[in-house]
Amino acid sequence: MDAEVIVVGAGFSGACAAYVLGKQGVDVLALDRHEVFPNIFRAEKLEVKQAEALARLGLLNYRRPLAGPIGNTINYVSGKASDFDTLNQFGINYADTVNSFRDALREHAKFVRAKVSDIKLGDDIQSVVTEGKTYTCRLVVLATGGSDVLLKKVGISRKTDNTLNSLSFAFDIRPKNSTSFPFNGFNYFLSDHSNGVDYATIFRVGETMRVNVFTQWRLPTSKLNSFKSNPERAMEKYFPDLLAQIGPYQSASKVQAFPTNFYRLKGIEKPGIVVIGDDYQSVSPTTGSGLDKVTTDVERLCSTYIPAWLQTPKMETDKIATFYRDSHKRAVDNMSLGRWVSYRDMHRGFWGKQFSRVELKIKHLLGLW
Questions:
Q1: What is the DSSP string of 59-123?
Q2: How do residues 133-184 score in pLDDT, each as one tens digit?
């Protein structure tokens, strides 16, 4: 075989998994179609528990940029501003962080640029088919960041909920009348949710001040192009007190947007393959829980399950199923989903919220969520 474990996809979750397994002495091969991870908008802030998890995995010091915690932050709620210290909350550049994780994994595992076109499964040996070669292994870890192409190849499908949607934006800003802002972080929370907007957060990433705006908008919407073409005007519309709070500013980069809708996998238990991160269940960036899911999946799978699985023959379905039943994993997945539902319901009226409660109970009883 070419490796004991092949990780398909070397984004945040895949790179973390390959690093952790390789450091333990597992023979790992990571495959990804990009030699260098592209500059896309994904998670840009590490929360306290996420930073602690990365520290346990040995990866916290590989994040980029290597700056200290965000520190002093202003919360603006219902016309009132208050200060607090974010402790170990870090701003990150997602693409730079993933590429740094890739550099780290190369010290303990193999990395090959390759586009995977098919995966063939069995109880003993798995085959990963690329354009130039077929690689074999005992176990495949699928971590492509949300693509369902390979999932369909192995007979795994998604259950979706079209009422759970989000559209998030990110861009850089700089002050007009000074060299820096008088804060490291600023959160603007809305009391009026009639526009479908959740909140905005501004935070330092190295020498850059980054803006994230989170909404429950669903594509297609004309609001997308309006926001991207003139973010200053959009911010004034949805966050009317922002200018008075942080002073004159201007955008300093293009606006990146990221739409999401909810899905969770079904028919997931297959021999020889395990699915993690956003491939298993989508997450709304509004919730700030995406990296909770990723770090939990990696920590539980790579520190507990895979080392034990490799000690015995075969990778049959019963063995793989133990990971999906893990109580820690399930708790974090359900926490992330629950937060998304809560944000959606903030934009509903009284009767909409009552319907949501009944709907949730029915879905839990039927095993749909």
A1: -GGGSSS------EEEEEETTEEEEEE-SS-EE--HHHHHHHHHHHHTTTSEEEE--EEEEE--S
A2: 999 999 999 999 988 999 999 999 999 988 899 999 999 999 998 889 989 9
Tens of pLDDT, residue by residue over 244-263, are 999 999 999 999 999 999 99
Cis peptide before 220 (omega within 30 of 0): yes
Tokens of 41: 């908008």
Domain 164-259 fold is: D-Amino Acid Oxidase; Chain A, domain 2 (3.30.9)
Question: 231-238 and 222-229 are packed helices; what angle lies between their axes, rounded to 10 degrees?
Answer: 110
Can you read off the two tokens belonging to residue 297? 């999946």
Domain limits, the chain? 5-64+93-160+261-340, 164-259
Buried b (16+ CB within 10 A) or exposed e, 143-170: bbbbeeebbeebebebeebeebbbbbbb
**Cα–chain center distance at 30:** 19
- What are the tokens at 31? 């495959």
* 24-39 burial code (b ≥16 CB/10 A, e <16): eebbbbbbbeeeebee
- Angle at which helix 12-23 crosses helix 290-300, to 10 degrees, equals 20
| The pLDDT value given to residue 66 | 87
* CATH superfamily label, 5-64+93-160+261-340: FAD/NAD(P)-binding domain (3.50.50.60)
Contact between residue 125 and residue 136 where contact means Cβ atoms under 8 Å apart: yes
Distance between CA atoms of residues 41 and 13, nearest Å: 15
Cα separation, 103 vs 106, in Å, equals 5
Enumerate residues 6+ apart whose C-beta is below 8 A from 263.
158, 159, 160, 161, 281, 282
Summarised one tens digit per residue, pLDDT across range 338-353 is: 999 999 988 877 667 6
Q: Give the whole-angstrom CA distance, residue 74 versus residue 327.
A: 36
Q: Beta strands 185-189 and 197-205: pairing type? A: antiparallel
Query: What gap in Å lies between CA 275 and CA 277, rounded to an integer?
Result: 7
From 145, 137, 126, 103, select the one nearest 19 (Cα to Cα). Answer: 103
259 burial type by CB count under 10 A (0-12 exposed, 13-18 middle, 19+ buried): middle
